[in-house]
Amino acid sequence: YVPEVNSAQEVSFQVTGGLGEAGTGGPQMNLIPREGGNSFRGSLLTNWAGEGWQGSNLTDAQKTLGLRETNKLVKTWDVNPMFGGPLKRDRLWFFLTARHFVTKNTVAGIFINRNALDLTKWAYDPGDQQAVADNLTKNASLRLTWQASARNKVAYHEERVNHWTREQAEAETDLQQNGISIRTAVGSTHASVTNY
To answer: pLDDT tens digit string along 37-64?
Structure first.
């Protein structure tokens, strides 16, 4: 689960152990959701970085120990719009938010196998291209809040989260069979969650 902090009006952290309301010890995060209001408001959070935006801390000592490359950022970007307002003034409000978040990094110490897809060779022969960890998160949420009486509010919240992770060690040396280029990808996972 990746919380969408832009949909929160308030975020609090507790770092004590053994809280009565928590099932486990350690840090706990509490998100107070936004509800919308009597005026239409929205915002857009976005950021981006590419591989040219970072340095390297690979030392000669690490190279002598056999580390050829460190983890490197290939790309990351995040787009997170939100919008809310009244459906009926002083009675019913809505709040919508969505997020599209991508990270792609190379993985230190893991290189694409030159022998991948060669059925005559079973030994790992590391090539020059690093493996890639690729993550994609998409989520969207809707919150409706109804002021049922002066003392009571009723809220409905729905959130859909899709998260894909792919640890990619693709065979860049394409195996040609009948004119078709074949590539392999190792370790793909997908999780989809709907919260009400």
So the answer is: 899 999 999 999 998 888 888 888 888 8
Give the range with max mean pLDDT: 152-156, 164-168, 190-194.
152-156
Could you give the C-alpha distances from 170 to 24, 68, 116, 181, 186, in angstroms and in order?
A: 39, 19, 8, 12, 7
Q: Which pLDDT band, with edges at 50, 70 and 90, does 184 fall under? A: very low
Q: Give pLDDT tens digits for 122-134.
A: 888 888 888 888 8
| pLDDT given for residue 93 in this prediction | 96
Closest by Cα among 54, 33, 64 to 144 = 33
Taking alpha carbons only, the member of 128, 124, 138, 137 closest to residue 186 is 124
Residue 39 has a CB neighbour count (10 Å cut-off) of 9
DSSP per-residue letters across 87-119: EETTTEEEEEEEEEEEEEEEEEEEEEETTTT-T
Which residue, 156, 164, 47, is CA-closest to 96?
156
pTM above 0.90, yes or no: no
